[in-house]
Amino acid sequence: MEQIRRENPMIFGRGLAITRKLGFPDVIMPGDIRNDLYLTLEKGDFERGGKSVQKNIEVTMYVLYADGEILKDCISLGSGEPNRSSYHSFVLYHSNSPRWGEIIKLPIPIDRFRGSHLRFEFRHCSTKDKGEKKLFGFAFSPLMRDDGTTLSDDIHELYVYKCDENSTFNNHALYLGLPCCKEDYNGCPNIPSSLIFQRSTKESFFISTQLSSTKLTQNVDLLALLKWKAFPDRIMDILGRLRHVSGEEIVKFLQDILDTLFVILDDNTEKYGLLVFQSLVFIINLLRDIKYFHFRPVMDTYIQKHFAGALAYKELIRCLKWYMDCSAELIRQDHIQEAMRALEYLFKFIVQSRILYSRATCGMEEEQFRSSIQELFQSIRFVLSLDSRNSETLLFTQAALLNSFPTIFDELLQMFTVQEVAEFVRGTLGSMPSTVHIGQSMDVVKLQSIARTVDSRLFSFSESRRILLPVVLHHIHLHLRQQKELLICSGILGSIFSIVKTSSLEADVMEEVEMMVESLLDVLLQTLLTIMSKSHAQEAVRGQRCPQCTAEITGEYVSCLLSLLRQMCDTHYQHLLDNFQSKDELKEFLLKIFCVFRNLMKMSVFPRDWMVMRLLTSNIIVTTVQYLSSALHKNFTETDFDFKVWNSYFSLAVLFINQPSLQLEIITSAKRKKILDKYGDMRVMMAYELFSMWQNLGEHKIHFIPGMIGPFLGVTLVPQPEVRNIMIPIFHDMMDWEQRKNGNFKQVEAELIDKLDSMVSEGKGDESYRELFGLLTQLFGPYPSLLEKVEQETWRETGISFVTSVTRLMERLLDYRDCMKGEETENKKIGCTVNLMNFYKSEINKEEMYIRYIHKLCDMHLQAENYTEAAFTLLLYCELLQWEERPLREFLHYPSQTEWQRKEGLCRKIIHYFNKGKSWEFGIPLCRELACQYESLYDYQSLSWIRKMEASYYDNIMEQQRLEPEFFRVGFYGRKFPFFLRNKEYVCRGHDYERLEAFQQRMLSEFPQAVAMQHPNHPDDAILQCDAQYLQIYAVTPIPDYVDVLQMDRVPDRVKSFYRVNNVRKFRYDRPFHKGPKDKENEFKSLWIERTTLTLTHSLPGISRWFEVERRELVEVSPLENAIQVVENKNQELRALISQYQHKQVHGNINLLSMCLNGVIDAAVNGGIARYQEAFFDKDYITKHPGDAEKITQLKELMQEQVHVLGVGLAVHEKFVHPEMRPLHKKLIDQFQMMRASLYHEFPGLDKLSPACSGTSTPRGNVLASHSPMSPESIKMTHRHSPMNLMGTGRHSSSSLSSHASSEAGNVVMLGDSSVGEAPEDLYHHMQLAYPNPRYQGSVTNVSVLSSSQASPSSSSLSSTHSAPSQMITSAPSSARGSPSLPDKYRHAREMMLLLPTHRDRPSSAMYPAAILENGQVITPYTSTPSTTPWVTPPRPCLPGLCASLLSTLSRPPPRAPSRVWMAATQPCQAAPAAACPP
User: Fold this and answer.
1) The overall pTM is greater than 0.70
2) Does the pLDDT at position 827 exceed 70?
């Protein structure tokens, strides 16, 4: 408080009130005097006294002395208020049981306290006369009892005595003899009844008191101790009863109690010495309690300023020594243990007593004191040396002694020199048994005592450390060897290193570090290795934390090791290396320290943001490695070469250089500058060490080829030019040494490729990987030093080939890494993986890598639900296996098994994937192959299963609907594309229902930076070399390689449709144009077709949904050739459709035939093939083109054939036509006669082919009857088996079921031949394609023109998975022919006849002449009047009942294409546009 007054004088100068705590403060310092009694008026219970209403009671209180005098100013109502002599309570209106609860402080002087009492007067206050107060009773209470104790802190019920206003209190003795309360009444039972004041038995008054006094006590035993001289014969009993006094009373009167004890001790040492010692121990231990711990400063102040026992030290030393000497004999040692716990303050009393004695006697008896202290320490050593394994009591005594022992050092330093105290301590610590002789609990206590010793002031002196350090290190060494109490040991070591580091005497530090290196370095390394290995094992097995393997312990010991290494100098390293007795010991040490350093860089010992600590660690490691490198070179290079040590060294160097904390390029320039200024680039330092050690290897370099290629390659990933330049000669050495040994460097090449691939798979490098291609160019390409060395070698050509392979691999790895790490679409990832997989197979021939990427690619396909492609991918691995019993090792997810078992499992999985992809034709050969194997093994159960599966596949082929996909050509131009796409063109197999617009949108979303090119022309060099992305997309038509199946008449169309779009390697794109002057009268004369044929590297489908274009062929088709192809394909379509009705493959509905006949006949009447007559049968044309005579004849024959086929078709139509459709049939007959008549003059023999239709005299019925049903022979009468005959065969387009307008991009499409089981609307769709709408744009001028007339109903992004409903899944992909380097083992001759596809070209505008009008429209001879709309209009559906009015409704606006929901039930037909004769 005085300090506060001094620091804040302005506050206390303003009449500030200071309020003391109600009760005692936390600490009562010696000299603090206080004597306050706090009284609370609780309540009262009073009689009504004959009144009709209750009383208004007021209490008046006085403090009176023994003589009856009222004490003045002894009542305080609150802080800041003046004291008064009386107190008046507040009045509760009409209450005989008032509750006041008022607190009053009574600051009574100590000398007046004894004999004083309190008197309470009770008055009734009248409500009528405000000044009238009538006394009716009183109560009283003495402040101190007869035994000298004060009023207890409790609630007291006081007796109320009756009196009146006339009563006088002048003679207080009249009532002081009366009992004041119940306890007082029990003490004086015989009270005369004829007293002046009579007690009111029904009334009572309650008060509570609390005494805050440092001089007055309520405890009888404590009072007896303080007044011991009054009871000289009871001193021993009084001292014994001190233990029963509460701690609160003892700490309140601490100074008085201690003074009393030491006075008693001086009075009779021999008699009371032991009892005083025990009492002192009790008080000291009381202050060890957490409740009274804050009173220890009170004890310290007392010892320093108030203690006066100059002779006490002798008796205290004697008693303490006696306790210790008895510890070996006594069974109960509670009192000894208490004395051991009080050792600190006992020594404080001993030392202070000796100081007082020395002052008083000028240092007399110094030797006796020293001798007694030495004897005391001998007793301490004796206690610690006792074997406590069989005595738990003794164990507790030793533990208590060890806990208190470090606390006496500071007291001893007041009387002894540092060296003397250190000798005492060393002898005591040395007397402790080693770890193997005591239990774990004692280990902890012993180490804690050592830790407190190290943390003490004594250990900070270099003189004492020289004495104490050996014994401390000895005990730590023992514990570390046994891996016990690692956390405590680490704390001790940390304190030692901190003290040594701050020491100013260099010579002392050198000596101390030398001691620590000899004692601790090896065991520290071993401890760290054990901790790290346990930590890894715990996390791997249970995922739990081991108490001794936590990151905390690891960090502690790492810090200790780093501190030790940091303080080592050249001399220490030299002594360390010289002290090894053999090379085996040196080898073991090097392996340990290298392993620890590697683990430090692998494990996250320090948090990532502890940059300073990480850099310091790296600096210590590189410094240590520099010292140890010479020992490694000196001892393990020549005849004593040891691969294990060298390999450990190189691994350490590589890990060091690749540390993330040393990659200065990723931090700010300011921080980088500070690091370089302080440490330099430690990567370069280690790289120079690495290079130097590599050069020292000599011929032993061959031992590290190819093992160190990967690690050294990892060093080259560091974006530090100097490090890379240092590593270049090492790669050359590796190539050179392997060339010398093996005549090649295949191992170097193979290992380099493996490591590059693994690094990419692990995602290493990040941004620096983008620079790796340039880095490899430096390493193996134009870098002068290496290139010059390679050119000087005899293996120059092999080296150049090696460089080429690695650089090409790096290009692919970069793309692969970017695709895998980025948020790329599945198709892009698949394409990149295919590119890399093919490289491993074809160029490097790394089979294991190839197989790994096969499975990666398969997983990608499965994720994208490309089941057919997944099957083809797995087939690559399956074909590498043979049906043999050769054992195969465990690989990827395959267990150890025979080659036969693995191939069988693969075949089953592939068959399953083909089934999910609805590619049953590709699964059947595998079923047969498995069946052959099962049959040869007589495994009939498996044979039955596989045969049933094969049969189910045939059923699926015939029963389940499959869509035919669209194909698109995509060109990727510009340097911004990935390497595997850059400036290349691909053909992609579209998803179900995907049209050109949807596909184009999907590609643009996959490459958001790309620009769609607006023309189909090949780009120039400016686009190819620009830093941008350009996409060129248009639809293409597949060209089947085999046509056998497609030429068979009785093959169902479900079978044909599969072979039309599978195993396709060639695709076509046609572009119409005019060559020479355009004939305005008949544009077909000058209309040519530019036909582009694209050949892919592999067939579609295959291991990918797209393949690169391998070759382009460009041909031009003349107008005459185009006309031949148009008519020929139309005839083929008619024959196929008629054959289906003749063989009853199409039942019930005749709409398909009606529409087809109507389309041909109606167009012919309105001009049709007559335009061809005008163009090519003209005499001028024949004269100008004499070489076309044969082709003109062929065209004439085709026209004659068409008239005959139409006649047969009308006959079939007559047979099956519905009565409601008779008007349409009549119209067809009439138009057919007109068509025949229009051709009569040109072909005189035409009537011979169909005499029944030659004139109007022949009835229509006879006309139709004269045409008998066409036999297969008659249909093939003029059939020409050229490839073009099958190009127009009808097919299920993936868009035809959702959009009836299916116009090829940029093509005027032709009709195809109908096949068995084809839906009517689909066949009509082919009709619509065969006779296209005249609104076709003549040439492809931009990407939009290339698109279809109607957007695809399913427009999805490239990254999404495309899956149609189960009944409409896409048609199956091609066989393994699309895979690289696949053998043709599945392509057996007997299977090819049934399963392999026979291909045909899809309709294309090049196949049919289209007149290009001036407004840009295109027409064919089979189209009707041209329209002004520049887009293809979807055809209109019509129900069977409406077909009679079909021609009359064609001019109406086309409605929206109907849903497929009613297709099967109603069999809708679709009419071709209305025909009109061209002008």
Assistant:
1) no
2) no
